[in-house]
Design a protein that fits this description.
seven-stranded mixed sheet; 210 residues; Rossmann fold; two-stranded antiparallel ribbon; 7 helices; alpha/beta; binds glycinamide ribonucleotide
């Protein structure tokens, strides 16, 4: 009886991912190792070729494909994505390398319940190819940001950031690798804070409760 109670009290987490899935994998390992207490109820991908689909299966986490290419228009895709996620009844959604903007309806439905990981120190270098943007800009530091998603592009309240140094010789590949290592850490930390109800959003600011 006790274990049933515990299972029901766990927060339900849905992952959205489009590709390799290393951020998902880092978090799934923590869940499997009981370092993060939650119920991973599914991974949804928009890309039938995505390695993360296979990865989810290897962790015993249900995987679902809402194949962007199989829809005639964006609206139908976004409706299908929202329907699938709704059916999984998540308490938290984690976008871990999900390469599409969520629809305003989706964001409104899960306000303050979607955590994203982004490979730059926001608000610098939002959007795509952030590591390349940082190098081309001549930034001396970049890093990564775990943040809540709002209706803008990478504009939501910041939960955690981690800094990575850029030298004159740092290549885009080297920077991406160094940032990814930090992404894996802060994404898991941000999820843990959420799961433990230790985050309070006040306007743009996310406060950590003790
Ligand atoms: C990560 O670097 C993530 O921050 C980035 O895509 C990569 C996915 O890697 N996301 C974005 O750029 C979103 N704008 P992964 O599939 O190995 O987790």
């Amino acid at each position: 009886m006790a274990s049933v109670f515990q299972k029901n009290s766990l927060k339900r987490v849905v992952f959205l991912a489009s590709g390799r899935g290393s951020n998902f994998e880092a978090v799934a390992k923590k869940i499997r190792g009981k370092k993060l207490s939650c119920l991973p109820v599914g991974l949804v991908s928009d890309n039938r070729e995505a390695k993360c689909l296979q990865l989810a299966r290897s962790f015993g986490i249900p995987s679902f494909l809402i194949d962007y290419k199989s829809f005639d228009n964006k609206k139908d895709f976004h409706n299908a994505l929202l329907d699938k996620v709704d059916s999984l009844e998540p308490d938290l959604i984690v976008t871990a390398g999900f390469m599409r903007l969520l629809s305003p309806e989706f964001v409104r439905a899960y306000k303050q319940k979607i955590i994203n990981i982004h490979p730059s120190l926001l608000p610098a270098f939002p959007g795509m190819n952030s590591q390349k943007q940082a190098i081309e800009y001549g930034a001396k530091f970049s890093g990564c940001t775990a943040h809540f998603i709002d209706e803008g592009v990478d504009t939501g309240p910041i939960i955690l950031q981690s800094v990575v140094k850029i030298d004159d010789t740092t290549t885009e590949v080297e920077l991406s690798r160094a940032i990814l290592k930090e992404e894996h850490k802060i994404l898991a930390q941000a999820i843990e804070l959420f799961l433990k109800d230790q985050l309070k959003i006040e306007g743009r600011k996310v406060k950590k409760l003790q």
